[in-house]
Amino acid sequence: MFFTHFSQEDLRPSYFEMFAQERLLPTLKPALRFVLQVFAQRHPRLVPVAMKSDELFTLLHFLLELNSLRKNQASCAEAFYGLRRGHTFSAREASNIVEQGPLSRTEIFSSLVCLVFVPYTKQKLDSLYEEASGHALADMFTGSQGVNTQQESLIKTLFVKLYPTFHALYELWFFLQQLLFLFEKTKYYSPWLRLQGILVRRLTAEELRAVPNQNVANSSSKLVSFVDKLIRMLKIAAIGGVFAFKFLEWLVSAENKMPKNTGFIPSPPVPLRPSSKGIQLPTDRTLCPLCSQPRRNPAVCVSSGYVFCYQCLFTFIERESQCPVTKMPSTIHDIQRVFHEQNI
Ligand SMILES: [Zn+2]
Predict the structure, then answer these.
(1) Helix (H) or strand (E) holding 201
(2) Residue 219: predicted pLDDT
(3) Ligand 1 centre and the CA of 259: distance in Å?
(4) pTM summary value
(5) What is the pLDDT of residue 8?
(6) Ligand 1 midpoint to CA 177 (Å)
(7) Distance 152 CA to ligand 1 centre (A)
(8) Residue whose C-alpha is closest to residue 296's, from 287, 306, 284, 285
């Protein structure tokens, strides 16, 4: 019923089909980041690649969506759920020549902007906000204003103050549009589709039958056929990766939830070895490896486990995006303050 059984006239997808397809590809991003981090731990040469995992994902996402929009008139996830982009839900109108034709170049371009570049920009703005607000927190701890000029710190303060409102309004805009779609008060699932005037509808029975023939017809040239196969394999690997990652996530959480009655406490993990390119550890391990002074506001770099002064570590990670000792890719979210009897 979900995919195949629908009346000829009712090609409107359900809210749940749209919701599921929207969540499909973003799940791949943490999976890709995790895989790159594992490889970077074993092969330090891959550290710069692991640090650019967002950009790598965006490039991969762009190629998959461009191919899918041109071939299937739908995004990858929409094509997976048997949907396509058009201008009407009605099968009778869908047989109209304009509807059956491919998406125009402008529509493909605007779809790519909304599917790939808008989420990327939003994510970068989110990280910028977290970084700027974290910086404000560090200034609060140290009482310093950093090395920013007055103009820079004014822009930063304004951004930190205004961004949460912008973020809330943006989310509200999506929430209201989706609520209207759920109650069938609008034809558009997302505000971006509304702005583009593009509807997402289910494939008709004829279109579903025509998909295999289309692939045969398109494989006339050997090179085209090879590229086509490669992209199809990449698409299957991407979607397979999502499911594998979700399965592993479930497995790990299920294992963690299992009652542990054995009384066995595993030995603590072996510390990561300092990198030859990292800073040297002081002989006195109570000192901060960055400033060689007794640690002030101790903070641990979660990705490696080494402890520094909060300010030293924050400034280093913000500049270098890696652990000072092991060179493991790290963000300011990997900084955790350490509380013990001396500094509570
Ligand atoms: Zn220090």
Answers:
(1) strand 199-202
(2) 46
(3) 41
(4) 0.62
(5) 45
(6) 49
(7) 26
(8) 287
Burial of 200 (0-12, 13-18, 19+ CB in 10 A): buried
Going from the first residue of the chain to its last (344 residues), give the mean pLDDT of each consecutive group of 10, the final group possibly shorter: 48 87 83 80 78 88 90 87 79 54 85 93 88 66 58 82 92 93 89 89 77 51 68 73 75 63 70 85 89 91 91 91 89 88 62
H-helix or E-strand spanning residue 132:
helix 118-142
Residue 199 φ then ψ, to 5°: -100, 150
CA of 336 to the centre of ligand 1 (A): 15
Q: Distance between CA atoms of 321 and 299, rounded to whole angstroms?
A: 16
Tokens coding 116: 């790939």
Distance 343 CA to ligand 1 centre (A): 15
CA of 291 to the centre of ligand 1 (A): 4
Angstrom distance (rounded) from CA 301 to CA 279:
14
Each domain of the chain, given as residue ranges in start order, spans 15-212, 272-344
Q: What is the pLDDT of residue 257?
A: 63
Q: Give residue 287 CA to ligand 1 midpoint distance, Å.
A: 8
- Three-state SS sequence of 274-318: CCCCCCCCCCCCCECCCCCCECCCEEEECCCCCEEEHHHHHHHHH
Assigned CATH topology for domain 272-344? Herpes Virus-1 (3.30.40)
Q: How far is the CA of 317 from the centre of ligand 1 (A)?
A: 13
Query: Strand 307-309 and strand 199-202: pairing?
Result: unpaired
Using the mean position of ligand 1's atoms as its centre, give its distance from the Cα of residue 296 in Å.
7
271, 274, 275, 276: CA torsion to nearest 10: -140
Record the tokens describing residue 319, joined without a space: 């500049």
